[in-house]
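Whiteboard transcription, Tuesday session. T.W. wrote the structure tokens on the left side:
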């Protein structure tokens, strides 16, 4: 039996949260890539707090599974199959949200994809694929939403899930570049879109355990628990509750910022998704400073 990473759906629906049950009552929330992982946990929490939740993604099977899980727990998840790389498909999707619901209160850009590989081994196609999904796809979504907020004279809120890139990301040069682009695009439009009543922020998870852990080699996943001074990984709930803070009135005076949730990773060390090279192996059973 394959090892389970991250919290179960049952735990997502039952775990205690600091937020009140009706916090997003009547609001419409789009969470991209909510078929699994961090996006799924975030979508569940928004639904538990009263929001009408919509998601989109390329994998119809994952989307159907998520919708079924929501239904079993008395919640509705609207799903659409599309690639966020496709500008026309994104425009159609966002337009449909406004036509059917008359509003879009929160957009959480969670969808993305990457793979661990030494920088010299990343192919041109591999580089373009990650940049097109993580940077261009995120831009397509937030740009389409902003144009509707502008034309309808309504306000909105964007939370972009990026990554803990502050010390670089060994074996992840492509996604580090893409996420950095998202961060500074977000800071830029946070100023431009403030007059529309739109807040734009990023959330940068460190190594937070999710179903994505299973896509990395064991040595890579092990390095995640050694990447911060707590010597453990975070979890999907850390990210989900962080999204709620940025999207709620608790963060009403926060825009153009990056909320980093990493257990101190940026102060300590870096994960190696493909496994730590031998020359960087450290004995974490001892103090890093010896007499």
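and on the right, the sequence the group agreed on:
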């Amino acid at each position: 039996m394959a090892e389970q990473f991250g919290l179960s759906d049952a735990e997502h629906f039952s775990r205690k949260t600091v937020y009140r049950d009706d916090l997003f009552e009547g609001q419409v929330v789009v969470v991209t890539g909510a078929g699994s992982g961090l996006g799924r946990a975030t979508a569940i929490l928004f639904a538990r707090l009263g929001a009408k939740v919509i998601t989109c993604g390329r994998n119809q099977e994952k989307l159907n599974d998520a919708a079924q899980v929501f239904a079993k727990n008395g919640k509705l998840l609207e799903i659409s199959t599309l690639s966020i790389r496709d500008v026309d498909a994104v425009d159609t999707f966002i337009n449909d949200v406004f036509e059917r619901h008359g509003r879009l209160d929160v957009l959480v850009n969670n969808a993305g994809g990457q793979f661990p590989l030494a920088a010299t081994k990343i192919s041109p196609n591999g580089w373009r694929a990650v940049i097109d999904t993580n940077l261009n796809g995120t831009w397509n979504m937030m740009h389409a939403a902003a144009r509707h907020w502008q034309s309808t004279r309504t306000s909105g809120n964007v939370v972009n899930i990026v990554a803990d890139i502050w010390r670089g990301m060994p074996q992840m040069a492509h996604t580090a570049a893409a996420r950095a682009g998202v961060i500074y695009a977000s800071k830029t439009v946070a100023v431009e879109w403030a007059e529309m009543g739109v807040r734009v922020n990023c959330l940068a998870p460190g190594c937070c355990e999710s179903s994505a852990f299973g896509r990395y080699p064991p040595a890579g996943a092990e390095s995640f628990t050694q990447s911060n001074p707590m010597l453990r990984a975070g979890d999907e709930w850390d990210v989900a509750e962080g999204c709620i803070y940025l999207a709620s009135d608790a963060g009403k005076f926060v825009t153009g910022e990056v909320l980093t949730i990493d257990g101190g990773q940026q102060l300590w060390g870096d994960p190696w998704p493909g496994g730590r090279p031998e020359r960087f192996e450290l004995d974490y059973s001892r103090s890093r400073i010896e007499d």
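Someone added at the bottom: Residues 284-291 have pLDDT under 50 and may be disordered.
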